[in-house]
Structures are given as structure tokens and as C-alpha cells.
Design goal:
homodimer, alpha/beta, Ubiquitin-like (UB roll), 12 helices, elongated
Chain lengths: 489, 489
Amino acid sequence: MSRPLCTIYETRLDRPSLTDKRADFERLKDFFRREELSLSLEDLRKLPALLREGDFLLSPVVFHDERGVRILELQGKRCYGIALDIGTTNLVASLYDLVAERRLSTASLENPQVAFSEDILGRIHYAMLHGLDELHEALVDGVNRLVERLCDHSGIDPDGIYCATLSANTVMTHFLLGLEVRYIPVEPYIPVIHSPWLINASECGFRINKKGLLYTFPNAGSYVGGDIVAGILATGLHKRQRPSILIDVGTNAEVVIGNRDWILVSAGAAGPALEGGILRSGMRAEGGAIYRIEINDHDRTIKYRTIKDEPPRGICGSGVIDLVAELYRTGIIDSRGRIRTKTSYIRQRDGESFIEITESVAISEREIENFLRSKAAMFTSIYVLVKSLGLEFSDIENIYIAGALGSGVRVENAQLLGMLPRIDKERYIAAGNTALKGSELVLANSDMLKEVRDIHGRITYHEMNTDGEFMRLFPSALFIPHAEPAILG
Amino acid sequence: MSRPLCTIYETRLDRPSLTDKRADFERLKDFFRREELSLSLEDLRKLPALLREGDFLLSPVVFHDERGVRILELQGKRCYGIALDIGTTNLVASLYDLVAERRLSTASLENPQVAFSEDILGRIHYAMLHGLDELHEALVDGVNRLVERLCDHSGIDPDGIYCATLSANTVMTHFLLGLEVRYIPVEPYIPVIHSPWLINASECGFRINKKGLLYTFPNAGSYVGGDIVAGILATGLHKRQRPSILIDVGTNAEVVIGNRDWILVSAGAAGPALEGGILRSGMRAEGGAIYRIEINDHDRTIKYRTIKDEPPRGICGSGVIDLVAELYRTGIIDSRGRIRTKTSYIRQRDGESFIEITESVAISEREIENFLRSKAAMFTSIYVLVKSLGLEFSDIENIYIAGALGSGVRVENAQLLGMLPRIDKERYIAAGNTALKGSELVLANSDMLKEVRDIHGRITYHEMNTDGEFMRLFPSALFIPHAEPAILG
């Protein structure tokens, strides 16, 4: 039977008698049948009176960790929890009623650290110059605003929140806990901690119940963050016999391959991500983002759709894949991404050629080149991982595509570009925000703590930076679809 | 190799490299090779800089618990500890330098709760009427004064003290931790807790380092306190093949019998203690206490000696034993403790007969009767315990006599009175303050934590109140030496 990480337990104890003289605390501990019961001294002082007033019936707020039970409140009335995905660009959170065991609402907010720098390295640099505090506080403030928004929306008091689960990449986890980040991006890439313990939420400035606890997914190094561990948990690939692949095309693309026996993660050099960063017109998959593009074979006119049908403000990952695939399919660009044909929407500016989709949304030849580096890194990472295990693409059960991109990507276009292996389309699964889902799973089921630890313990990572095979194959993968298309599957 | 409960560890870590990319925290954790390493978030935030400034050499203050290691300070300069014996009447403490591994000094202080009531029940009653706070604070204040005195004496700063070990009876432990005591003395005799966890000393108001931890010996019920568990540890009887007996004749006499396989403790009804309480002239074994008495066979004059040869202020336990034994030997009292002979120092006052030793130190016939109840309870407890195990006195390896009494008692007189079994005098061992010694052992060697847990887990207690054999034999034991002297051994 699964039980939430934290909930209220109707706890009816045997009354003491001359044949059962256990002390109050041990009586309570025995009820839970776990190795450890933790309680504050303050609550221990209240325990005898509470037990006897209530005829040995209590309704404590109980947090389950791997070893035992922590009583956060001796008499609880309500118990909510927050699942968090702290992305470099976006914070997403779900609020759960852990007594009713249901999700109340989900909300997101731009990571307030974006104001310091769009990308992680810029933020680390800022922290090195000005100290961690500003970035730590900006992030915590963002989380608090998000929590407040969820609480307002559901009409609950943040004081009723007793736990939060958090998945984030290694740097974001460090920023959130106020830990030094300067050694993460430089050789030999050392984080302060891999597996944070349960932290008092108040120690981090979280405005939830002051006894609330924060669970943080462990990282497997500077480049394999808790978000990836959470993603693995969310897909369940770690429990199945046949290997599956998880591709997180969020802000920083990583590739995971694994099954119930082993898990391998590509680390480093997966290339820049598809959204933001490499494209001036790039944006996240939200209202106004162009996510579908078709080019007419005959007149080469561009048709696009935006998310929520809002006026176009930029182009998101799935839109870029569609665009480049359609440009190639219709012969506007060649296999190296160079513009070969003159059409009405090709512009020259400052010596650069642009594809102008709308007045404000355009993509340059150089940006297409950057995109091709990303797709080359992604495919080559997948290929090298699969081959390093002595496997073929046909051995792969599923390929999970995580991230906001996941729900929108047209697999046939990604395959046409040589970005994804050419296996049955049915085996591609749009997995959504797996980092958030992993967080939600732990919140909803404390047994997941052990599963996370197992996953974390089984991860090995494959450094692409220094992999000879990766280096050898990468240049061929820069072509559309590939200079050696036979390896696409 | 034994190591103190808390000490400073020279900790030289491997420097990180591309082939050893463990995070700072896990690197530190691996150094200690224990299941758990705990550190405050505050210290985790300081860790990366400290490690790199010191070229991966640290000198942390390290507390060893059973499961792992707690780092209380990342860079320590000194580390002291306090072993405490919190008696109903006296507080005794030793100060240790845990780096040099030696005891610096020992001191004692009257338990400030004596001002509320001499005996435990009176204090519990006071707490029920006026709340726990006054008694809790008085006790903590006493401990703080004692610690201060030790620190002054050795010229150290209390801030350098990182741990305290504490043995006390169940009620004193509860008072010290600020836990409800009202349910301890009433049926079914339920304490708040048997095995307190490690408590932040500051949570209890202890004025030592604010990160310091307090270890409390576990109790095995309302009447078998941590002081007894500490006493067992101190004698080592729990490790030997042949059974031994431990008698603590402090404020509340209890009898332990055990070996490496089992431990049995008599609980309840061991009768009033020998010191204080039952005698108006009774006092602890300290300066001015009459501790030796001889009565001349011919002229029946009394000769006595006082501790430190100070003017007599009262009579301590060993003095009472000597006195009653000599009164009996010289025929002044009969086998029921009644005064049978007129001598110069027998006085009548308010219808009571007194033996007047000095102008201010006297013992009445009724007090002798009370003493005989104590000795009867003690002998009968020992006898019943031994017999309940199918043993004879000759099977007993040693009889440890703990308490201030231990060093002074004349075994032959106690045997003459039928208080102690008639076995070789060599097998009686004056064990001194075993409660303090147990505390000191844990402080000096963290492996003792496990031993204490083992002892605690093995204790069963034998309720004398409801034991038919005890009830049957007790009346005969009221006689000097016994109505059935054959059972004395």
C-alpha cells in the first residue's frame, strides 16, 4: 500500500496497563513499526497530556523517510505538500492535499534568476563576483511566490504545507540550498553534495510550515542532476527488463538509457538545447510560441500554428524541428543547412541570411547551424550510448521525450533530420515534464524514496567530451540527415 | 580501538580529480566509512571553501553515534566533554579533555531540587501542583553551576564542551529533559520515554557549546533508571559468564543480577535507602559523617570516626550498618532491634528510646526498625532474584556495592546483620559511584553506546511488590540476622 511522503495518521494506541508498561514515546514508536521515530523535544514534552486527554488517540502529521517516521505535529488538522521542478528557466509546482491524496493545482513561474542571466554559467559567474545570496534569495523568493499562488488558488494556508519535494539540475539545487556553485562548472566538476538529507524548509527560507521538510532529488554529478533522476523515476524505465531511452530536451539536453539492471547517462557536450539560448527568436512552449510549421511544396509558403493561437512571439523547440525539416524537405536548405533557394521570406541583414517567418520571428543560417550541432550531439549521444552497451536501436523498448518539447515534437520530422533514431513511431512516448512528475511521485508515495536511492546508486555516466567514438561520429551527424545515414536505424 | 564519544579528527581527504569526482560532502562522508554523516546546512555551506583553503585537510569536531558520525564543527580547536551523574540528592560531574583523552576534574553539588523536597515523590507532587518548570530549571541550573565550577577549576571555556553523558534515575532524567513526571509514580507507572535520543544540549538549557549534544542513559521503566544501566556498564557484569550482583545503595536501593546472557533487576519495594530519608541524623558520606562505629565489649562505650575527621554532623550508610551491628553484637539490641539494655547513651524522648552517639547525632528504636526493613528488603530481593534463576549464592562471582556507601561498608557487619549473603568477603567489590563511572565510560568510548543498548535490551525486571516468595520471606528477614539463618548462605 502506498502512502504519501507526509500525511495525517489516525493513531490509536493501546492503553498502558500493568502488563504493558511501555513508555509513551516507545508506545507511539511501536505503533508505526519502523526502526526510528523522531519527534521534537518540544512535542515529547506535550505527548503525555495529549495522549491522556485523547484517550490514547492521536492524529499526528507524519513524515515517512526511508528509515522511519518523523512526527512533525502531534495533532494535525490538514497536511498539504508541494512538488517542485526547479528549472533553469521555469519553476513549476503542484500542490497536493496529502490527506485526500489528490492534486489541487499546478502553476509555473519564470525562474527569477533569469533576470541575472539566461544561462547557468552566467549565473554562476554572477555568484562568483557578488556572492550567492542574491541568486539564492531570488530563487527562494520565486518558489515562495509560486507556493503562495497555489495556496491562494486553492484557498489554503501555507502553514498547512508540511513537505516539499524538489527536482532540479545540480546547479539549481545548489542555488536553492544556498550552496557554493563555483566548483561545479570547472574541472574536475565537483558539486558540494550529491544526496542532500531532508532539510528543514525554514532553513532554506521556504514559507511553508516551519516544521516542514524539504526532500531534494540526489544528483549523480555536476552534469547529471536530480531532475534526471526524477525523470527516470517518472518513466519507470529502471524497472523494466528491456532498455528504454529518456531524452530530456529542456534547457540542457541529456540522454539516459537504462533498464532494471543498469542506467547510463550521457554527460557533458550534449550540445546546447533547442529552446532559448541558441536562437534569438527561441522561446519556451507557451502561449504565442510557433510550434508547428508546414511549407507548401509548390509555392513554398509557410504556414504555422502558435500555442493557444496567440499572436506569434517566437518559436519553440518543436517549431524549430518542423521548420528545419520542412526547409530541408522542400529543398530550401541543403544537407549542411545552407540556404540554397531564394524565396520571398529569405532576408539578408548584416551579411547574414535569415528565414523570416513573421515580422518578428526569424532564424538565421548560423542559427540553423547551431541547431544542427544540437541535433548532431543528441543523435550521436544516443548512438554511442546504445553501441557502448552492445545494443541496437531495435533492442530499445521506448524512447521517452521529456520536457515541454515532448508533447509537441513531430517524431517523423526529428527522424527526417537525423535527430532521433529511425525506429517505430509508436515507441516514442511524449513524457511531458518528467522532472515534475518524479517530484509528484515521491510526494504521493514515500516508497519512492528507496526507488530514487536505487536509481541514483545505479547511474553511471558516460562522458561524451572525451569519448573517441563520439568525436569520430559527431561531424557526420552535422549533416541532414547524416553523412552515413545507415546508422540512423 | 576505542574513540571518545566526541573528539577532533585530523581529516585528510583525497583531492578531487577527473577520476574521483565525488562531491565534497560525500568525500567527507566516505572518509569516516560510516553509514551516516550528519552536518548542519550552515556548515555544508562553508565546506567547499574550507576544504580548498586547507588543501583538503580539516580538523572537525566529530560526534560518534551508533549509526555514524555527526560533525558539530568543521574546524575545531578543542573538545571537552562532561560525564554526569544526576542523583536525587547529589549531582556529580567529571570534565574530560576528549582530545588528550583524560579526566581533568570531578566535582559535586547538592541537587538544588532538595530545596523543594528531599525525596522524589515530594518533588513530583510539587510539579503536579506548580508545573515542571521550577524543578526543571533548578536542576538545569545546578548542572550549569557544576559545569561552570569544573571549567573554572580547569581554566577552560564551557564553549569548548561538545557533549555530555548523563545517568540518572527515571524521574531525574525526566526532570532534566523537562518531561512530565506525574505518571511515573502511579499505576501503571509509565514514563514519557525509555530511550531518549541525542538531544541538543541547548534545548535543555545546558550552557555548553550550542551545538553540543546530550546523551542520556535509557531507563527500563519507572523504577529501573539509566543510573542502573550505567552501573551495569561500569561493573562489566554484562560481559562475563558467571553471574554477578550489583547493589546500589544510594538514595533508592535496587538489586541487579546478571551475566553476559541475561540481566534481572529487582524493581519496586526494595525499601527505603540507608542514607537520609529514614534517619533524622542520616546524611551522605561526606565530611563530618560518622562512617565507622565500634562499641567496647566491656564498658559498651561508643567510638566513632568521621569522614575527613570533621566534627560529627550525622551518620552515613556504612555508619548505620556498623552501629546496628555493634549494638546487636554487644547485646544492647535484640534480634528484633529492640533496646534491651540500659547504657549511658540511651535516652528517652517523647516516649521514644534513642541511642545518642553525640549531642546532635542519635538514632531511635523506630529508626532501627526502619533500617531493618531496608536490610530485609535488600537481602530478600537478592535471595529471591538468585533463587528465581535456579542459582545459589555460591554461583555468584562478585557482588558489587555501588554508591558512596560502597567504599565504606564493612561487609562482615552487613553479613552479621543478615543484610548481605554470607559468601567470601573477597567477592565483595566496592564499586564506588557506578552511575558516574558508566557516564564516563560512554564519554571516553563511543563503542559503549552499543553496549548500553544491548544491556538495556536484555534487562528484565522482577517486581518484588507482587512476588509471593518475597512476601513470604520478608518478615523473617526483619530479624537480625534472620529468622531462618540457614538461607543467609
